[in-house]
Amino acid sequence: MIRRLPVVAALAAAWAAAAWFLWQTKVPSSLRLPQVDLHRFFTAAQLRSASSYSGVGEWLWAGGVAVQIVQRIAMTEAWRSYATSAAQSP
Description:
Elements: H1 5-23, H2 38-41, H3 44-52, H4 54-88
């Protein structure tokens, strides 16, 4: 575990630097997005079909959040158990 610490630290520093550089970017004020008429490119049936898929993304997001909450609770309990047993050992 100790050998991995410099690698993890370097990756974290690279991630932080990339985030900082991306945060400094600016969108040109002259940028104008075109108005797109979806009905020009897709039929009404295709648009109805596509709108039904938006619920899948919401369910996937909710499932991901639930998994993270359960994982954090499990890790907290595991750490608490480990800390208790480590404190009781001579």
